[in-house]
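Suppose you are handed a protein chain with no further information: no name, no annotation, nothing but its sequence. What can you learn? This example shows the usual starting point.
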Amino acid sequence: MTTAAVATSAAQTATRARTATAPLKLEKDIVTTPGARIALAVTRYATAFVFLWAFLDKTLGLGYSTPVERAWINGGTPAQGFLANAVAEGPLQGFFQSLATPAVDVIFMLGLLGIGAAVLLGMGLRIAAVSGTAMMVLMYLAEWPFAAGSTNPIVDYHIVYALVLIVIAATAAGDTWGLGAQWKSLPFVQRNRWLV
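A reasonable first move is to predict its three-dimensional structure. Written in structure tokens, the prediction is:
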């Protein structure tokens, strides 16, 4: 190994060590005005409610988007029904219809609950942002918004929800009116920063 390679390797090791021991950033370090932090907290609660409401309505059939007879607890298939029947025409139709299985119902419902709970509590926002964004992009593509007659082929509510999840995670918005700061202080989270 050359002297330059040894020096580069040592510098990379030192950077990794500093990053691993540096404290995790708090929301107040990222978002410097109290009003903005409160706005983010309200946005976080509203976003959590979107996911938790969808979970509750699909589980119990509250009569809004899911009638009681199609509730998950009554044998309804929240993801299968959408994937098998409601998917718009498009080049990905076969792929999405192949996903219409009971296992995907469970994954979808656990995803709604987990994302909603994480966002509400302000913990695990990175995981919630990644999984929520993946869910929203898949739902966006399943509805194939590029077909004639769609409302907006570029940005619809799925994309807006995904962007909001990313902003909430990127700004550490779980600290205000949430448990984000306490979560980040746990040794387990300090060692596994991807859990932030």
